[in-house]
Structures are given as structure tokens and as C-alpha cells.
Here is the input.
Amino acid sequence: MNIGTLPRIRLANLPTPLEEARRLGEALGGVRLFVKRDDDTGLATGGNKARKLEFVMGDAVRQGCDTVITTGGVQSNHARMTAAAAAKLGMKRVLVLEGSKPEDYQGNLLLDKVLGAELSFVPEGSDVDAEMAKVASRLRAEGAKPFVIPLGGSTPTGAVGYVLCAMEMVSQVVDMGLKVDQVFIATGSGGTMAGLLLGLKALAPGAKVWGISVGKGSGRLRDTIAGIASEAADLVGWPVRVEPEEVLIDDSYVGEGYGIPSPECIDATRLAANTEGLILDPVYTGKAMAGLMGHVKQGMIRPGETVVFVHTGGAASLFAYDRWF
Ligand SMILES: *Cc1c(COP(=O)(O)O)cnc(C)c1O
Here is the structure.
């Protein structure tokens, strides 16, 4: 298969800008820092899921589906963006959200409601794949054609969206007369990093891609990401494999767990806002920026290196985290 022949539906405003963050770079002791603004993709406030959804929804439409079902936490950006994509394509949308139904609908959850998604809350720790399969069989019995998107849209198909992001980023950096030395990205279900890593392996060999984990431990994530990246390579017809040892994960910035902001995450979010007017989020990008700051402190970024921070979005969830600030 050729990358240009994979089914794709345009959903994101591309290319996203690559902006130099001079004041933030200075605050970090003189890092040449650029921000890849994937929070600016559009699609109900934007984020990394827009690029994945272009290919995932392309697949759903090609299969003639009229309904999408997906899952995530109560403040899932992926669920919100999938609901928006489905609305835009005239498809029914069902979200299986892990967690309890809150009194107030805030942030992403409020947007899910406004976007007309059917919401189903399941207790934390539920087998969400089984829950989605139940919803799918109910809908099938009613005559619908459902398409189930796994957590985060992190399939090899979705990861192809981030192969294209790698191409875009390298082209922007090269146009400035620079080369990519290090990339920082928040990683959760792994599909975003998998695609990016695959693309950069081909186009910027030697560049370090750091995935700052927001939940899982590094061992499991390395295997997951290497697997998705290698399957995505098959999809686009590249004779390339990504091995778990090539996947750089730092899981020391998770804090108490997924969705629980750490003090470093709150500090990093404040610093980006106060130096650049840049809004990070308390679940993903705040932790990723805390990781970048930690690597600077540990001397892991050499002076003169070009560092790209991939802003994957998520600011909508900030509205559900007021008490942390
Ligand atoms: C989903 C998400 C990520 C992580 O992407 P994965 O592909 O799940 O690893 C990072 N940042 C934000 C804001 C997200 O919503």
C-alpha cells in the first residue's frame, strides 16, 4: 500500500505552525526550543487526535459505517474529537467513558454533550473493549453499522497521521536552516509517538524522540509503540521495523497516575503560560513539558541543540481542573 492511497478524510487544518518559544527557551537556561502547534489542528478545539482520525475515519467511511463508538476517560480529548469528527461526517457517536458521571459537565465532557454524543459511563477498571463490543452488538441489532475505535485511536492506521506530521516537522525545521536534535511528546496509548518515531527514523535519523509517559510504565509502552510503528510501516509499504529498544520512554513524570497533575506539571503549565501565553494541559502536555524541563536540569540537552516540543492539545480539560491552579 502507498501512503497516498490509504483512505483519508481531511479533518485537520494542516500544516500546523512550528513556532520558536524564545522566552520559554531562555527560562530553561538557553534551549533552542520550538513548539509544533498540533493543539491548533481544529476539530472542536484541536489536538493530536485530528491527524489520527483523518485515517481512522477514512477507514470507517470506506467500510460503509454510519456510527462510531470509542472510549476514554471522562476528560478524554480523543472521545471529544471523535465525537466532533463523527458529527462532521453525519455519523452517530457513542462514547464509553471510564469513570463516574460527575455532577457538573466541564471541559471535554461538556463538549461531548454539546456535540450530541451518546454517553455511557462505566466504572474505572472496566473492560472497555468488552463494553464497546456490547454497544456495537446492540446497535447492529437496531440496524446500524458501527465502527469501534480503540482507546486513543492508537491503531497502525491512526499512527499514519503522525508519519505525515514527522514529514511536516522536518520540512519546517530544515526550511529554517536547522536540524531536529530532540523531540519531546506526551505519550499515553502510544499511537502518536509510534507514527512520529517511524517518520523521524526515516527523515531525521539520529534525532532523539522522547516519549514522556502520562500513565503506563516504560516497558509496556516500548513494546506497544514498537508494535504499532512496525505495523504502520507495513501499511505505508516501508520495509522498516521499529524495535522496543529504539523507543525512548521516560516514565518518571507520571506522578500519582493518569489524570492526576503532579506539582512539576502544574509548574510547567504555569511557566509556558507566563513566558509564551501558551496553554498546556494538566493531563498530557504539562507532564511532557515537565519532562523536557527535567532533562534540561539533568544536562541531557546540550547547548545549541534544536528541541521540538510537540504540543498535542488537551487545553479543554483544563476547565475541569480549576482547583489545581
Ligand atoms: C491522546 C493525547 C496524547 C497522547 O497520544 P497517544 O497517541 O494516546 O499516546 C497526548 N496529548 C494529548 C493532549 C492527548 O489528548
